[in-house]
Amino acid sequence: xxxxxxxxxxxxxxxxxxxxxxxxxxxxxxxxxxxxxxxxxxxxxxxxxxxxxxxxxxxxxxxxxxxxxxxxxxxxxxxxxxxxxxxxxxxxxxxxxxxxxxxxxxxxxxxxxxxxxxxxxxxxxxxxxxxxxxxxxxxxxxxxxxxxxxxxxxxxxxxxxxxxxxxxxxxxxxxxxxxxxxxxxxxxxxxxxxxxxxxxxxxxxxxxxxxxxxxxxxxxxxxxxxxxxxxxxxxxxxxxxxxxxxxxxxxxxxxxxxxxxxxx
Length: 264
What we know:
This protein is mostly helical.
């Protein structure tokens, strides 16, 4: 479980409710079922209309990325690659077949298997980079779902407020209830703006951050696999891969994609 996501949501809700209650507000006044239905129901409906079912099926995986932290140990990956590079220089790449089968990461397993099979280095790079691009595109689709929700929610809040005001202005026979009714109507706007800026948009950002972390780790593996395949000195490989621990090698698909196009 990614504790930062949980803590952030708790602080966001606590800040809203706590600040409201400090001014003398009552928690019951914030719970308006009709406004909840309009804002969240309308937002979900708009998102469903916006995306095909095949993309919406990834919502669970998207939430998994935001709320579960994938265990990563780049130092361990580097040590593993250096160990295999030493074996390859001493016994040849065919000696890595068993290590390839034992690799826990699917990306590393696939890359090592291509090395063992004698795949052309350039083809190995192209295949693995295409796989990385596909995964990055998938993550972008995940983030877009929540970005769309963050865009629709405030509008649904305004719609809910307008509907509430229509109801209030259509029943002016009791002036004493006018002010409370207007306050209730504006609760929908609160729901929309709050959900967009504390739930939907932050989750989209977290998905993008997790995606960059995973892609950066795959970049490290890719460079290690290619260096291993080229028979480079293990210590030089270590120095090369160590740079991934101190710099963000892949800052975005645009930069990486441009570099790849130049290489091709």
